[in-house]
Amino acid sequence: MLPWPGDLRDELAFAQAQEINTYQAFQSFIVKYPNAKQVASAKEKYEQLLSKALRQPVVRYRRMNFFIKIIPIAPTDKSQRTV
Question: Residue 46: which domain range?
Answer without folding.
Answer: 5-71
